[in-house]
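Try this one yourself first.
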């Protein structure tokens, strides 16, 4: 089982339970269907980080109040605003399938989430290569809505990145993203090296979570 399939299975909540052949076939078919419609796009901007502590994060006349984000950015000198999407056709495919077969739609959702994560990881590797030439190393991605980093900050991020024009990503009044298979994130860059940027499950103490990535 390849890593992408493992991620989709994780999003489906199987944990370490065995996966039946029918589900594996649904996953394989879903990836094939998604590859025919997805349109991967991303955008990022790099700013000098003026302050990052337990009180607030400051850069480019922006103030963010989040202890979790401040901890994530500790020791950083630069901040990267990042946005990515799989495109509106992904949403349309999932919506169309959900009207005919909800089980298939659930698998499609999981596979799309895995594809988006894979794409974001690839984008982050490219950004890391760019900044490494300047002597910087990236921290984990940190998205609005995680911990005490309010989802309301997504409005600021899509404006500063001009995501509507550049990648077709907009927000609803409730700060939900459209297309839904999209992400915004903050990435810190500092002079000290961290070996791995994927710290979601690795840093989480909830060992019995059904969505937990295998970190052994």
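Now uncover the answer:
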């Amino acid at each position: 089982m390849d890593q992408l399939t493992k991620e989709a299975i994780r999003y489906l909540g199987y944990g370490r339970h065995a996966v039946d052949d029918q589900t594996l076939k649904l996953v394989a078919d879903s990836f094939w269907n998604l590859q025919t419609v997805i349109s991967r796009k991303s955008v990022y901007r790099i700013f000098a980080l003026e302050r990052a502590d337990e009180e607030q994060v400051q850069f480019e006349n922006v103030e963010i109040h989040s202890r979790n984000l401040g901890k994530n950015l500790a020791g950083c000198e630069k901040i990267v605003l990042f946005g990515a999407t799989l495109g509106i056709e992904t949403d349309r495919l999932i919506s169309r399938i959900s009207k005919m077969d909800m089980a298939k739609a659930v698998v499609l959702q999981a596979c799309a989430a895995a594809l988006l994560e894979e794409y974001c990881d690839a984008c982050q590797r490219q950004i890391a290569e760019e900044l490494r030439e300047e002597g910087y190393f990236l921290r984990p991605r940190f998205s609005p809505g995680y911990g005490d980093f309010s989802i309301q900050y997504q409005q600021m991020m899509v404006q500063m990145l001009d995501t509507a024009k550049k990648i077709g990503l907009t927000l609803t009044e409730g700060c939900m993203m459209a297309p839904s298979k999209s992400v915004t994130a903050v990435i810190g860059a500092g002079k000290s090296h961290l070996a791995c940027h994927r710290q979601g499950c690795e840093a989480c103490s909830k060992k019995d979570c059904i969505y937990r990535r295998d970190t052994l």
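Discussion: Confidence is low (pLDDT under 50) at residues 202-206, 208-212. Helices lie at 3-11, 21-35, 67-72, 88-98, 102-132, 153-161, 163-166.
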